[in-house]
Specification:
Blueprint: H1 10-21, H2 27-41, H3 46-51, E1 57-61, E2 67-68, E3 71-80, E4 90-97, E5 100-101, E6 105-109, E7 117-119, E8 125-134, E9 142-152, E10 155-167, E11 191-201, H4 211-214, H5 217-231, E12 235-244, H6 251-275, E13 287-292, H7 296-305, H8 311-320, H9 324-332, H10 335-344, H11 346-349, E14 351-361, H12 365-374, H13 381-387, H14 394-407, H15 412-424, H16 428-441, H17 446-458, H18 462-472, H19 476-488, H20 492-499, H21 505-513, H22 517-525, H23 533-545, H24 549-562, H25 565-572, H26 583-589
Parallel strand pairs: 6-7, 12-13
Antiparallel strand pairs: 1-3, 2-3, 3-8, 4-5, 4-6, 4-9, 9-10, 11-14, 12-14
Helix pairs in contact: 1-2, 7-8, 12-13, 13-14, 14-15, 15-16, 15-17, 16-17, 17-18, 17-19, 18-19, 19-20, 20-21, 21-22, 22-23, 23-24, 25-26
């Protein structure tokens, strides 16, 4: 038989015995005991919250924290278990990254006064918290802790600070100063086309080259040119001979006449070149021939340049009629004008035009390089600018561009190119001074604007850099440079787009930060700096991010082998957070 269970309530247990025992006590004593008993029942809950603080769970995203675009995003979710959060408690929680306190969050019990996220007593509850904080170097290796203060009316208790995560991955700061500067290009050409021409005039209906034509000053000048061309080593490519007949006369006769004039001109040129002992032009293959039976085009040009009385009327005839015979008939009807034409216009159309085409060879590269360092004043502007491209030594380049700047002070390219080399030498202040000169000589020049953008970015002013790049307009170099800024702004997809197919460290870094590890590795493998320590270090980060421990360790060894500074860097780098207990990682970073 089960024993009878007696039911008790709180009133019976606490108050009735007290009342019985206090029969002989005065009312004041009874009041004190009553208050104490009520306090026992209605505890404010703060002590319990402190005691069981470990039952609260916090999740930090990401873990470890990451810096992007100069800021660190802190995303915390918290969960309170059932029957934990006091009904009248107001709880203020404050995340703190190292010494940097973030904005606080207020949580309130279901019966608490005031605004805040409600947390139920019986069911428990949760909260979400998202804030950004400006990055500072002391956040690189700092704990993220949460501290809390609970308040019920006038009473408060501190809940001990609790570490919930680590900060901070700062991989975007690996960005290198590899922006693409733009040179002021030289216009030097190794082969310069050179030509000389000669007109020979004929008597009406004749094709023989008269001695008087050979003895003319124009012919002598032409022959002198051929001699100089050969003496200077010009390459004589050929001579074109075009022969013409005036528009008067029968077309078939004029066609034969033009043909004969071309033949006689070529024969005369061959004889004169041979007489002057010029090697070129001995063979007929050296000459090309063209003939025009009725030179109406030449007639029109001479008429337009003349002051003949019926000039406009004749030009209208040329426009109205396309048939040569009809044109000639209409013009001859102007009898007085026709007489003038026969004297002033038509004789000039009975001619041949010979054009000798040559290639003038510039000084050799070796000679230009020699003169650029020994006697730069002997070079013209294009030669000295070209000379700087013939050497890889930056100091030599700088000296040549400075010589160009001294000799040609009004050419913006010289000052800009001095700045270009200064940028390659990481001398931003020197580059800026030269670019200011270049800008005065050629305001808003795209190359100068691009280069000034680089200087601004290196000096920490990204906004000014963007403004300069906007003025520079569209170019591969400027687009790439905007990509570098996009990395620092935390816009990695934009950076990848702007950098295009560039195989550089920064292009690979953008892909790493965008989660494209395989593409980043390929970019590094194709980059000129693939064997640099920093490239191996980035590959180690790719390995750590993708869970490829062997890849991370082997590349980290290679980076440290090339530059011992990466040992300490890796030990403190939270990219390798998950490898800190790895024996191989410890052995190469200790």
């Amino acid at each position: 038989m089960q024993p009878k269970v007696q039911n008790f309530n709180l009133k019976q247990i606490i108050f009735e015995p007290i009342i019985l025992k206090m029969k002989n006590k005065n009312l004041h004593t009874l009041g004190i005991v009553f208050v104490a008993a009520v306090g026992l029942v209605s505890c404010n809950g703060l002590g319990k919250m402190v005691k069981k603080a470990d039952t609260v769970t916090y999740t930090l995203t990401p873990q470890p924290l990451e810096m992007h675009g100069d800021t660190v995003a802190v995303n915390i979710s918290g969960k309170y278990p059932p029957k934990y959060f006091g009904k009248k408690v107001v709880l203020t929680i404050t995340p703190k990254l190292g010494e940097h306190a973030l904005e606080s969050l207020t949580l309130v019990g279901e019966k608490a006064a005031g605004a805040g996220t409600k947390i139920a007593f019986k069911a428990g509850g949760s909260f979400s918290y998202s804030k950004k904080i400006a990055y500072s170097p002391d956040m690189k290796n700092a704990d993220l802790k949460i501290s809390a203060t609970g308040v019920v009316k006038s009473k408060s208790k501190e809940i001990p600070a609790k570490k919930i995560g680590d900060g901070t991955i700062i991989t975007p700061l690996l960005t290198q100063p590899d922006e693409k500067a733009i040179l002021g290009p030289d216009k030097f050409v190794k082969v310069l086309p050179v030509s000389a021409d000669l007109e020979i005039f004929f008597i009406i209906n004749e094709s023989t080259v008269r001695p008087s034509e050979i003895s003319r000053k124009e012919t002598k000048d032409f022959k002198s040119f051929t001699k100089r061309a050969e003496n200077k080593g010009f390459t004589m490519k050929g001579m074109s001979v075009s022969a013409y007949a005036s528009p008067d006369g029968e077309l078939s006769k004029n066609a034969n006449l033009a043909e004969e004039r071309a033949k006689h001109t070529i024969k005369a040129m061959m004889d004169e070149l041979k007489k002057d002992k010029v090697n070129a032009g001995k063979e007929e293959s050296f000459y090309t021939k063209a003939t025009t039976a009725e030179d109406w085009e030449g007639f029109k040009k001479l008429m337009e340049a003349s002051d003949i009385k019926d000039k406009d009327l004749i030009l209208r005839v040329l426009t109205m009629y396309t048939d040569g015979d009809q044109r000639e008939k209409e013009i001859k009807n102007l009898s007085q004008t026709w007489t003038v034409l026969k004297e002033k216009i038509l004789p000039k159309l009975r001619r041949s035009v010979s054009v000798l085409n040559c290639d003038s060879m510039a000084r050799t590269d070796d000679r230009i390089s020699q003169l650029a360092t020994s006697s730069p004043d002997s070079l013209n502007n294009e030669e000295i600018l070209y000379a700087a491209t013939l050497t890889k030594d930056l100091n030599t380049k700088m000296n040549i561009y400075k010589a160009a700047e001294k000799r040609f002070p009004n050419d913006w390219r010289a000052a800009n190119n001095v700045a270009y080399i200064a940028l390659m030498q990481n001398k931003a202040d020197d580059a800026q001074a030269e670019l200011q000169k270049a800008d005065q000589l050629s305001p808003s020049n795209p190359a100068v604007m691009n280069n000034m953008g680089i200087v601004s970015r290196w000096k920490g002013d990204r906004k000014a850099a963007k403004d300069y790049y906007a003025k520079a307009g569209s170019s591969t170099e400027t687009s790439y440079n905007l990509g570098v800024i996009a990395i620092l702004d935390g816009k990695y997809s934009d950076a990848i787009s702007k950098m295009g197919s560039a195989n550089t460290f920064n292009a690979a870094l953008a892909k790493v930060l965008a989660g494209q590890g395989d593409a980043a590795s390929q970019t590094l493998d194709n980059s000129p700096g693939k064997d640099d320590a920093i490239s191996y270090y980035l590959k180690a980060i790719i390995g750590a991010r993708t869970g490829k421990t062997d890849m991370a360790i082997s590349n980290l060894k290679a980076a440290i082998g090339k530059d011992g500074a990466y040992k300490d860097m890796a030990r403190l780098d939270l990219e390798f957070f998950k490898l800190r207990d790895n024996a191989d990682f410890k052995s190469i970073t200790q």
